[in-house]
Write a structure and sequence with these properties.
Oligomer: single chain
Radius of gyration: 21 Å
Bound molecules: flavin-adenine dinucleotide
Structural class: alpha/beta
Strand content: 25-35%
CATH superfamily of the largest domain: FAD/NAD(P)-binding domain
Order of helices and strands: EHEHEEEEEHEHEHEHEEEEEEHEEEH
Helix content: 10-25%
CATH class of the largest domain: Alpha Beta
Amino acid sequence: MNDVIIIGGSFAGLAAALQLGRARRKVTVLDTGLPRNRFADHSHGVLGHDHKPPSDILAEARQQLARYPAIKLVNARADSISGTLDNFSVLTGDGESLGARRLILSYGVADQMPAVPGFAEGWGTSIIPCPYCDGFEVADQHWGLVWFRPQSHIQVKLFQHWTDRLTVFADGHDIAPDIRADLAHRNIPIVDGRITGIARHGGHSATVKLDTGPDVAVDILFAHPPTEPSASLHDSLGLATVDTPLGIVLKVDERRETSMPGIYAAGDLATPGLPSVTTASWQGAMAGIFAQQSMLV
Ligand SMILES: Cc1cc2nc3c(=O)[nH]c(=O)nc-3n(C[C@H](O)[C@H](O)[C@H](O)COP(=O)(O)OP(=O)(O)OC[C@H]3O[C@@H](n4cnc5c(N)ncnc54)[C@H](O)[C@@H]3O)c2cc1C
């Protein structure tokens, strides 16, 4: 019997494993090797690892975890979970049944690519979600923002710290007159019409094709596709979720425990806003520590 099974062995899951391994708890980490930022060449804003490929950061972390004999890293998918506090079962894609006293869910979320030709191909290089992740590298260049909700207005204000050359693509969304007036005041053009395709060029740059009007070239395009949890294991147990503008995430308390005693969650799967490697690592470490403390006698 494991003390803890961690489902999802990326930034959040490995950070949880590190704390548990150091506390000499028996841990199995199940992972399918598809971290959310695998499309990006570099990861930014991660202290001590800035501008490294995400796969290098994770490989280094796995290497460091090899010091801890109680941590087992398994390349397998968790297919189902069942049980209750002190007696959980996880069935893997390889047909193995594993037991644990606690579970940590850190299987992340998946970005749902729109059916726009070229979008998926450009994701992570010419189409990116977050200025903190990649904005510095393209500062002062011509940015595009695909509008997706009124809160995009906040992004416009945020982006102006990186560039004063921004074009907003309405992509079929209604932009309220007062927001249009504010964008005009900021000298930010709005391109109406729906995006019908995105052609990626070298580096970050892209050409946005529209159903009305001419193509527009940008040096980088920001977009926020909706997300879905990368697995539905939480559904089978009826764990409470929180609705966010981009998709659902798991509800956790201040100890990172979900609505079911003994099941903890960390990382993008349980982050209602501003997901990042740093946030995932912090939450994973906390989930590991609180899971460990919950087993004290
Ligand atoms: C294009 C892009 C660029 C980004 N750039 C940055 C950046 O520069 N800096 C930054 O801080 N953040 C960046 N992010 C955000 C960052 O990728 C996420 O915040 C971070 O990966 C979240 O870590 P996580 O451990 O919660 O989830 P993930 O990294 O998504 O890992 C989840 C893991 O769970 C595994 N898994 C899924 N289902 C199962 C299952 N059933 N069984 C077992 N394993 C499973 C997956 O294979 C994966 O390995 C970027 C995101 C994107 C989309």
